[in-house]
Amino acid sequence: MANSKVRRPRLDQPVQPRSGLPRPHYDPEAFGRLSEQIARFLGTSRFLVYLTVFAVVWLAWNSLAPVNLQFDGIAQNFTLLTLILSLQASYAAPLILLAQNRQADRDRVALEEDRGQNQRLQADVEYLTRELASLRLSLGEVATRDFLRDQLRDLTEEVIARTSEGAGAMLYDQQARLKREERERRAERKKRRAAQPEGLTDGQSAKLSEPFSGETGSS
After folding, report:
1. pLDDT above 70 (res 201)
2. Where along the chain do its domains lie?
3. Which residues, including other chains, have CB under 8 Å from residue 172's CB and lie 6 or more apart?
4. Which of 24, 50, 169, 196 has its CA 20 to 30 A from that of 180?
């Protein structure tokens, strides 16, 4: 009862082709490599030399040999030679096209790999650029050796001056204030010099920083 039921095809499996004729099975990769070798040989000077020698020998034999030994004589207009050359040309063209298609596929794969490698290199360069920028910002906030030496010197002089009396302490306070003001002015000039465009002097940057007042005078 169960065997008499018709089995329905499953939707999750591809339908097998229904053909009574046997189909040849071959390895496409091996056939492609063979076609590339043949097409590569057809494009060499050796093939041209071989084909020229073959045609010359064929024509010479069927023209100069006795009539009873000729198999494709002038009377037949070299029909067999023409058929052989036509058959060779008809097979050579598809083989060359197949080799070109395989080469185009390889070039496309190589192009995709090069594009992916270029994208990875670009991402690496952008990452390194961001890291260098962050390092420059971090180094700008790090105290230098000269700054620490000046601070220690000032603290040492202040401690020594605090231990002295009266006029010495007042003189030290004035000198310390002058030194502090000088350091502040030097730091301010350094900031302005770093902020101004390259190639401009301090006088030119000062003129650029002044507001434009326009020309005055009688019209």
Report:
1. no
2. 28-110, 144-194
3. 157, 158, 161, 164
4. 196
